[in-house]
Write a structure and sequence with these properties.
- By secondary structure, the protein is of the alpha+beta class.
- It has a domain at 134-248: Glucose Permease (Domain IIA), CATH 2.70.70.
- 26% of the residues lie in helices and 23% in strands.
- It contains four helices and twelve strands, in the order αααββββββββββββα.
- Strands 1, 4, 5, 6, 7, 8, 9, 10, 11 and 12 form a ten-stranded antiparallel β-sheet that branches. A two-stranded antiparallel sheet has the order 2-3.
- A hairpin with a 2-residue loop joins β2 and β3.
- The relative contact order is 0.11.
Length: 257
């Protein structure tokens, strides 16, 4: 009996000792009612501090699972953006690109062939090749052969100009014509200038009407300074009466019937 009683007292002492050293279930701030207001304030501060510490811990912890260096991503990396799904009824006008569609439509309109009004071609401009000259010989038979042009006499070295716009196809010595120039005006018409003292153009050069092409002279088979002027149709050596042709084109060379 005594041994049993002794063991019972020892058990109670151990239990009382455990109760005295056991941590309270709640903070000691709740021990008395007189400190209830202070306890609530302190509890709020404690909870706030706990939330802050938990947030810092969460930010340092790996995202999406267990920690460790093998985790897929950490909080230092920006989280992946979720796909944006428009709600029902949202036509997503930003995806239609109205400006782009307007640009494409404008480009398609510009790609269509433009209708241009037909305009009449300007009339060819023709001028007198040596306006200061006088006619000394006309087109026709002379000395038993055809005089294929008209002779226009002026002081030696007078400026000779192109009768119309064209391309020079020959420029240089040409037998009895001396220094001569042949110009193709297109549409099958050519003009020929002979007996020049100087040539100021070269083969392949484009010239305009009234452009200076050479100087009057007496080279080749000539009895004095003059310009031998010819008009040919279709090809060279197919001459037509030059003064009548020039008259049809608005240029008068008086002196020949």
């Amino acid at each position: 009996m005594g041994q049993h009683s002794s063991s019972g007292r020892g058990g109670r002492r151990r239990q009382e000792s455990l109760h005295r050293h056991r941590a309270p279930a709640f903070p000691a701030l709740f021990a008395t009612r007189s400190r209830s207001a202070l306890s609530v304030t302190a509890l709020s501060a404690t909870l706030a501090a706990g939330v802050g510490i938990a947030g810092v811990a969460a930010s340092a912890a790996p995202v999406g699972g267990t920690g460790g260096a093998s985790g897929p991503h950490t909080a230092a990396h920006a989280p992946a953006a979720l796909p944006i799904i428009p709600p029902d009824g949202d036509e997503a006008p930003g995806k239609t690109h109205p400006r782009l569609e307007a640009t494409v439509e404008a480009e398609s309109r510009s790609a269509a062939p433009a209708r241009r009004k037909t305009r009449p071609l300007p009339k060819a401009q023709w001028v007198h090749p040596l306006s200061s000259a006088e006619v000394t010989s006309c087109f026709g038979p002379r000395w038993g052969r055809l005089h294929a042009g008209v002779d226009l006499a002026a002081p030696h070295g007078a400026r000779v100009v192109a009768a119309g716009a064209g391309v020079v196809i020959s420029a240089g010595p040409n037998g009895g014509y001396g220094n001569a120039i042949l110009i193709d005006h297109g549409n099958g018409w050519l003009t020929h200038y002979g007996h020049l003292s100087a040539i100021g153009v070269e083969v392949g050069q484009a010239v305009k009407a009234s452009e200076h092409i050479g100087d009057e002279g007496s080279t080749g088979h000539s009895t004095g300074p003059h310009l031998h002027f010819e008009v040919h149709q279709g090809h060279f050596q197919n001459p037509v009466e030059p003064t009548a042709w020039m008259h049809e084109h608005g240029v008068e060379i008086p002196g020949c019937a």
